[in-house]
Amino acid sequence: MGAGESRPPPRQPSPPPPKLEFDQPWRKMPWGKKDQIEQKLRSFRLKGSSARFVRILVVGEVGAGKSSFIDSVNNAFQGRITSGALVDRTGGTSFTKKYKTHYIKAEDGSHLPFVFNDVMGLEDKKSGADAEDIFRAIDGFLQEGFNFDHTSSMSEKDLGYRSNPSVEDQATCLVNIIAADKISLMNDGVIDKLKKIREKATVQGIPQVIIMTRPELACPLVHRDIRKIYTSKKIKEKMEMCSNQVGIPMSHIFPVKNYHEEIDTDDDLDLLILKALDQIVNMAADLLMDQSFNSSEITE
Length: 300
Ligand SMILES: Nc1nc2c(ncn2[C@@H]2O[C@H](COP(=O)(O)OP(=O)(O)O)[C@@H](O)[C@H]2O)c(=O)[nH]1
Ligand SMILES: [Mg+2]
Description:
InterPro entries: P-loop_NTPase. With 300 residues, the chain is of the alpha/beta class. 34% of the residues lie in helices and 10% in strands. The protein has one domain (34-293): 3-Layer(aba) Sandwich (Rossmann fold). The protein has a 6-stranded mixed beta sheet, sandwiched between helices. α1 (34-42) runs parallel beside α9. Bound molecules: guanosine-5'-diphosphate (GDP) and magnesium ion.
C-alpha cells in the first residue's frame, strides 16, 4: 500500500435482516395432530352432573357463519361435508328462524355429549332475535321449534316456551360468532345486543368465547396457508378488535376457517375447529360440575 493511500475501514458485520414482528406464531397449534384432539373429544364424558349434554349457544350477526360453524364441527367428526345447520347461501336476512338443537353423531350411532343451538341472526334493534329471546335461550326456556320471527302471531310464539327447564336445557357456553372481514361493519344494534347477552352470561358465570370466522377473507397470508393463522399480524389485529368490541379476552378468541366451498374435509381446518371446540367443551363442563350452578334456581 503506497504512501497517502488510506486503509479501507474495517468491514462492519452486516446488520441482521429486519425481524418481522410476527415471524413466529404467538399461539402454538399442534399441526398434524388433529387425530389426538378428535379422540380426546370423542372420549369426553360429563361427570358430576345430571345433564347428558353441554349446550353451546351460538349467537351473532346474520351471515357471521353460525350455521357454517356448527356444520364445520359436524364435518370434522363425520369426516365429510354435511349441511345439517342449513347455511344461507343467498345472503340477506336471517335464514335460521326456529330454535333447533344440533346433535353430533358418534361412531356407535349415539350422540356426542355436546350440542349446539343456532339462533336467528341478531341483525339490528328491530329485526332479528332480540336480547330477551337469547336470555330465554340461555336459561333454557325456549323449546325446540321456538319461532324467533316476531312477525308471527303471539299464540304461535307462546308454544315455544318451557316452564321448568332442566340443567341440560340451559346454555353452558355462549359462543359469539364474528366474521373477521366484517368486524368494522358491525351494526351498533348488534354490538349492543351482544353486550347485553354477555352481561347476563357473565352474571350467571357462563363462559363465553368468540369464534372468529372467515379469517382467510381478512388476510391473504392465511388465504394462502391456513397454518399461518397464528403468525398473521392482521389476524391478531382482528382478534383484538373482536376483543374490544365485545369485551372478551384474547385467550377466549379462536379464529376458525369454516368449511364453505370445500368438497372434502382437511386436517388443518379440522384441527382449528376441534381445538376451539375442546376449549368450549372444557369450560362448559367446568360450569356443569360447579354445584352452585346445578342447584341454582332460575326464575324469569
Ligand atoms: N370464506 C368463508 N366463508 C364462510 C366462512 N364461514 C361462513 N362462510 C360463508 O358466509 C356465509 C354466511 O354463513 P352462515 O353460516 O349462513 O351464517 P349465519 O347467518 O351466521 O348462520 C355463507 O355464504 C358461508 O358459506 C369462512 O370461514 N370462510
Ligand atoms: Mg344461520
